[in-house]
Amino acid sequence: MGECGMKRIKYLICILAVALLTVIPALAAEGEEIFVSTEAKGCVALSQEGDLTGLQTSGQNCLSAVASSEEETLYQTIYQGLCNQQSTITVSMTIQVADSNQVNAELNEFQSRVIELYQAVINDNPRLFYATEGYRIQSEGRGTTAAFVMTAIITPGYRGHFSEEQIRRFNQTVDALVCEAQKVQTDLEKALFIHDYLATHVSYNRETATGQDALSQNVYTAYGALIEGDAVCQGYALAYQLLLRELGIDCITVTSGINQMNHMWNLVRMDGYWYHVDVTWDDPVPNLEGRCDHSYFMLSDETISDETHNHYGWDTTAPECTSTKYETSWIFNDTELPIYWWDNKIYYAIRTNGRYTIYATEEMNEEGSLYATSEMSFVNQNNYIVNSAVWTDGALCYVDQNKNLKMLSLQDKSESVLGTISNFTAMDSVEKDENGKPYYPAIYDGIGLRYDETTKSVHAISANRAEELGTFVILNYPPQWGQDIPCTTTLVGARWMDDSTLQIGVVYVSSEAKPTLWAATYHNGRMTGVNQVDTSELTNGLNILELRVPSGKSFDTRLFLLSKNSCIPVGNMVTVP
Question: Is the CATH number 2.60.40.10 carried by domain 479-576?
Answer without folding.
Answer: yes
